[in-house]
Write a structure and sequence with these properties.
With 682 residues, the chain is an alpha+beta fold. The protein contains ten helices and twelve strands. The chain folds into three domains: 272 residues, PAS domain (Beta-Lactamase, 2-Layer Sandwich), CATH 3.30.450.20; 53 residues, no CATH class; 215 residues, Helix Hairpins. Helices cover 68% and strands 11% of the residues. The chain is elongated, with a radius of gyration of 65 Å. This is Methyl-accepting chemotaxis sensory transducer with Cache sensor.
Length: 682
Amino acid sequence: MKQISIRTKTLLAIMPLLLLVMITLSWISYHYSHQIIETELNKQMVLQLNVTLEGFRTHLNSHKAIGEALARFSDKGGTSISKAQYAEFLKSVITSNPLTLGAGIWFEPFQYKADMQYFGPYAYKEKGQIVYTEDYEKPDYNYPGQDWYKLATNTTQPVVWSAPFYDELTKITMITASAPFYGENKKLMGMATADLDISELQNAVAQTKVGENGWAFLLDKDGTYMSDRDPAKNMKTKITEDSNPSLAEVGKEVLKSKQGRTLFTNGSKQYLLYYAQLPETGWILALAMPAEELYTPLNNLLVRQITVALVAIVLVFIGIILYARFITQNISEVKRISALMAEGNLRQEMMVNSRDEFGQMGQNFNSMIINLRKLLHKIIDNSQQVAASSEQLTASAQQTAKATEHIAITIQDIASSMENQTGYAGQTTDSVNEISAKIFNVNSDMQVVTDMTLKTAQKAVEGYKVISHAINHMDTISEKVGTATGVVNVLGDKSREIDKISSLITNIAGQTNLLALNAAIEAARAGEQGKGFAVVADEVRKLAEQSEVAAKQISIIISEIQKETGKAVQIMSESTNSVQNGIGLFTQTKSTFEEIQEAIQTVSNQSHSIAQTIAGISQGTAQIVNSVQGIANSTTETSASIQNVAASTEEQTASMEEIQAAAAMLATLANELDEAINRFQV
């Protein structure tokens, strides 16, 4: 199964959470910003609507005041004021408002004079002049039948606004503020009107800037375009009949609700539409703006948020990589030391470079290595003591064997003087037979010890051969390193000779360059005849310069070769020293194996001698059995003595066997302990 690194695990643990947090924060910020921007846009658009409508209202009120002033003037003067006076008053009043196009006084038929059906003096502006006319008094115009007149006949309002209309006389689109005036008994006497040229208002609406690519348009109360960015629609097209079906459908909602916010599409784009009504006239001002302009700041904010999030993710990713690398480096050091410990190498300790938990772990690890090293030293010392104790036990067993031999001799002496004690001799024979069996077992155990000693000696010889082979191999390596050092030294000498040659080439090239320059000068002096020679001299000079450059490059390369050769000589020298040190260590190991081989040989000889001794004891015991069988009866006192001696002999023989077994076990444990400890390098 493939291992997953700590770096990968850290990234898998942190990056999804970081991405989730970044996405959540970005969404919350985007959503909150969307609400704020949309709210601010609504406020801004409503404010722009109100400001524009307030401007319209200001102009309309200024114009409406003229109609009211004319009506109040007519209320007071009525028929007592002459036409000339009305004309002068009209001329003076229309100059008070720059947007007022004209004004008129319109009496009901036959009200001004019984013999005059229409009385309608009118003054208007034309090319900077005030023009007075009575053309509207003509019967074919029939001003009482006009909409602007009929609207005010039955109103309770002081002023009534007409719908926009096109005047044939002035060739201007205008609206009329009609103010009725009354005679006695509140009888309608006629109308005072003030006409407003709406071209200024149309231009103001057309020039209204809505966002970056939006526009404004003005509708009358019936939905007819009064002003639009497309002049062809002005006073001709209703919004409900617009060529854009989406806007035409929205127009129905606009005319119905009078004020609000809605959406429509134009091609593939979506537009926001804010609209409000001017109550005095019933006009509706609408502001259209592409919806994408609302979302442009949001999109820019989203891009910035994504950029910041990506930068943050990259920085966190780099931080995780660096931190994971720091952790991996510390863990790699622990892994390296633990691998060496697993192989038994306790000589190295961890390098502690930090003061954090990893540093504390490294210090604890080093403390554990030091404690293990001390423990192994104690075990080595104790194993040596165990080996010494086993040797002492073996010596004690040998002494016990000698004592048993003396006892056997004593029994033989007693047996020679007890020829007549046959009955007791049988019991003695049984005891001696048991002793013989014990001695036989001891002989078998000693044979096993002898065989193990021989095998150990063979292993020591094999180790001695391996060490000798390694020493020969190291000598060969030393000779090869010496030869390589000589070759590198020769290479250094050759490179110095090449450096001298390149310096010589550089000098020759410089001199050649000077000669070529002199030759070129002489050729120039020779004039036309020396042109060919001048070309050759110039080529020689170029070759000399190229040779000089090449020689300098060779000199640089030779210098680098000399530096590398010096490094190689130094490395070869260090390698030679390392090989010599290795040869010295292997030579010491060889000497140690020779000592081990001699010690094992000594142990083998001693084991063989012990085996021969035990064999001799076995033979002597057999002779004792044969001798005791010839003993006859003895006295009761002598028999008791012999029995006591035999019992003592049996006890000592048993003790000797136990001691030998314990010594053998201790020796085995000591060997196993030495083998286990030899795996560790302390």
